[in-house]
Amino acid sequence: MESTAGESADGAWPGMIVRERQPENLEFPFSTLDAFITPTERFFVRSHSAVPEVDAGSWRLRIEGAVERPFDVGLDDLRELPRRSVTATLECAGNSRIHLVPKVKGVQWDMGAVGTAEWSGVPLAVLLERAGATPRAVEVVLEGSDRGEVSDDPKTPGEIPFARSVPLAKAREPDVLIALGMNGEELAPAHGFPARAMVPGWYGVASVKWLARLVIVERPFHGYYQSFDYSYWDRRHGLAALRPIQRGEVKSAIARPLRGQRIRAGEETTIRGAAWSGESPVTRVEVSVDGGGTWGEARFLDPANPLAWRRWEYPWRPERPGRTSLIARATDADGRVQPLQRDTDRRTYMIHHVLPVEVEVIARRDGVME
Ligand SMILES: Nc1nc2c(c(=O)[nH]1)N[C@H]1C(S)=C(S)[C@@H](COP(=O)(O)O)O[C@H]1N2
Ligand SMILES: [Mo]
To answer: DSSP class of residue 221?
Structure first.
């Protein structure tokens, strides 16, 4: 059942759509997309377990595993380190799942499990450098302090913390942060207070909240949230293998008009939306107002950015009454084009094919001549 967050505990905007009450999972109604930066109270929340209680005074982040110098840091130590800000779009890999036919398991997100924020914190590379990874180290496992148990098959081995790994090559990129701030304030509890990973350009699942430990490992980690869950089929060399979901795909979404909206023939309306792509700027959004027969170019409202979305708009003056489908299709600087069809190898994730919005064009106002 869909309801709104009227009485949300965490100060969320009352118009947020509640997808799960406990733990709280919220999305924003994508039709309200307006600013480039998503205000924190409208930023989606995806949590697998209850928000853990963290005492900021005694909290420590431990860095250990295949390192020369294991150590731990408190919040005050982290606040002293060189800080960096990154404006990045975060999208849940399950965003848009409600549009899959046939229906699949998982949180039934519409379009709003995505948002753009200004994240600030310490580059993960600084901590990795201080610990000194061994020559054989390949990945860093980011572990949260929230714990949970999945009791449906495939089950977890009892209660486990939320954890994801990032290969060291990505983890050392300067924009990958141990984030302490979001939109100029310290992190809200729902978004990972006191510290979370921010892995821009990758699906949200890698950006582990409520960090407790960073474990450097010499073999790829096959934890629950990147094997049974949050993985997709890859067929390189004709061999179907499960890989962890990482880099974001190219995607555009229409915010307005709404599905089923009635639009008057002969009057100008504006089709609006946003487009984003992991680690690559969106370079082009094409819009079709006739179900994919013909295409025109949308105009961008934001500059090209490899890590953040670009809002776009497309003016349209429908001529003839009747039902029609609006479609937007994005292309990124790597030449990746948003697909027209769903790829089922993505299992229940990475839902980025175009999703037409059907609207109804109604007759001109009386007295307006053709
Ligand atoms: N510790 C922890 N980190 C987590 C999660 C979680 O459940 N626990 N959810 C992940 C997923 S699937 C997403 S999409 C993002 C959502 O971040 P947000 O809630 O700040 O929007 O957090 C990620 N980090
Ligand atoms: Mo997610």
So the answer is: -
| Whether residue 207 has its Cβ less than 6 Å from ligand 1 | yes
pLDDT at 11: 83
Does residue 370 register a pLDDT over 60?
no
Residue 213 and residue 289: Cα distance in Å, rounded?
A: 50
Mean pLDDT of 102-112: 97
pTM: 0.96
pLDDT at residue number 3: 76
CA pair distance 320, 268, nearest whole angstrom: 13
Residue 123 clears pLDDT 80, i.e. is over it? yes
The C-alpha atoms of residue 32 and residue 245 are separated, in whole angstroms, by: 28
Report CA-CA distances (Å) from 110 to 116, 221, 260: 17, 31, 15
Ligand 1 atom with least separation from CA of 49: 7
For residues 119 and 307, give the distance between their C-alpha atoms in angstroms, rounded to a whole number: 12
Direct distance between the N- and C-terminal alpha carbons of the chain, in angstroms, rounded to an integer: 45
Pocket probe mutation, ligand 1, options 47, 149, 150, 213, max atoms within 8 Å of Cβ? 47
Determine which helix (DSSP H) or strand (DSSP E) holds 262, and give its type and residue range: strand 262-264
Both tokens of residue 246? 């990482």
Which of 19, 22, 45, 92 for a ligand 1 pocket mutation test, highest count of atoms within 8 Å of Cβ? 92
Distance, CA of 65 to CA of 162 (rounded, Å): 18
* Type of residue at 296: G
Q: Which atom of ligand 1 is nearest to the CA of 210?
A: 1
**Does ligand 1 have an atom closer than 6 angstroms to the CB of 225?**
no
Is the minimum distance from the CB of 251 to ligand 1 under 6 angstroms?
no
Ligand 1 center to residue 207 CA distance, Å? 6
pLDDT over 70 for what percent of the chain?
Answer: 97
